[in-house]
Amino acid sequence: MYEFSTFHLGLALLGMGIILAYWLPRFVSGREPAASALLILAGIGASELIPGLAEQIDPTRYPKPWETCSEIALIVGLFSTGLRIDRLIGWSGWQPTIRLLAIAMPLCIAAITLLGSGLAGMTFAGALLLGAVLAPTDPVLASDVQVGPPLEGEEHPVRFTLTTEAGLNDGLAFPFVYLAIAIGTVGAVTGDLLLDWAWRDVGYRILVGAGAGIAIGWLLGKLLFEFPPRNPLARTEAGVVAIAGVLLCYGVTELIEGYGFIASFVSGMTLRRTEAKHAFHRRLHDFTQTIEHSLTALLLVALGLALPALWAEAHWENVAVGAALIFAIRPICAWLSLAGTGFSPRERLVVSVYGVRGIGSIYYIAYAAAHLDWIDEEGLWSTVAITILLSTIFHGLSAGLVVERVTGEKVGAAKDEAA
Asked: Total structural domains in the chain?
């Protein structure tokens, strides 16, 4: 009469793990980002209780579900991140972000590529892919170091820089992912390959992504706040419009071969410029953040569930690459790129150290695995999983307090008060 269902047991453990991960930190600090590491650990624990579960969701065997779920979480998170920015500061305020994107990120990719090939013994294409996958910081897991929700006004230069970097570097890492896939497909680096990559994957797709984001964000602003003049859509307070808008933006941009991640963030920023003080922006942000947090929690628990299946391919070299990125490569590259930006040494150090890794890396490795069979696939997944685990532990448990002390802004407290 009673049937024992592994699937239903898995659902129960998943729900219990998520609740515990968000509940337990409240006894210490009440900081939600601290739950990130606990979500992964809850997944590891559940995997030990249900034999064989890790193999059933092994990302090396089933990359497509991981790609789809992380893709949706990212586009929603990027749109939400764009909505948070209350004001667009001048050129000088954007210089740190531009330097992180144009100098620090390529340096990180190059360093990880060298480590991946020299230390971990990966092919050049696989090592380059690893560099591209681990280079972007995460817009989803880094809310404690970013600017506050719309209309709250916490926009210290440190928070602004970390927010805009996370909003843009997910899309800007894509050219390097495409380059790795192209080299892996052809098996060599040729002049024609580099030329095609430069004009299409770097030039065309970035420009189209930015342009589509501006156009669609402007159009959404008109539809929400101006037409029809006496009964605009914003009066409905229907937060689901935000999801519809970001899906429209992302889908259209990808159809015309632009980078949908760039378009999602830019459309959020552009939409925010329309009636910038309107309370409906907070409604849109809160709705998208709910979806974002839900998908992120599921992905992190799933990553924990899959980790036992990845341990077999995890060697000390994989751990060394992940640790080097978190504790040395990112801090050093970012510190060098921020020279002369006007940050105090302490502010410069915080921006350099707190480059959180997470959902973006899951998406990129899943995307690449779904489009090409990689010789180093197990090692790639293992390194990415280890890096995310290290980042959630180190960054997740310390970022909020450290950034608050540097900026004097308690975004986490504002969240609690708003709730």
From this structure: 1
